[in-house]
Amino acid sequence: MESSVEMQAPGIDAMLDELRAIRDALTKKPIPLEKQLWDSHAVADYLGLANATFKNRVACRTDFPRPCDIHKGVSANSSGHRWKASEVIAWSMAQKV
Length: 97
Prior knowledge:
This protein has 97 residues and is mainly α. The mean pLDDT is 86. It has 4 helices and 3 strands; from the N terminus they run αβααββα. The chain is elongated. The protein has a 3-stranded antiparallel beta sheet. The protein has helices at 12-27, 40-47, 51-58, 85-94, and strands at 37-38, 68-69, 81-84.
């Protein structure tokens, strides 16, 4: 007679792996806001804009924080532009509503 451990339902290992990944994600220490770098999608999301709108109307403004190029020239399809989250938030808070 097989033990109950050997008769586990199919997919139980995958489910356990997924639960471990969720546990790890929930217990991971977050990066402090003053050290976070946001890509254009994160900035657009924070500002409540579409990514294209952010790039075409906000990122090009002279009063908007300048981006850091963290991996310039790595891929033709990706931009290395990242903005300091704290600077984006400060800029956003300073805007007249």
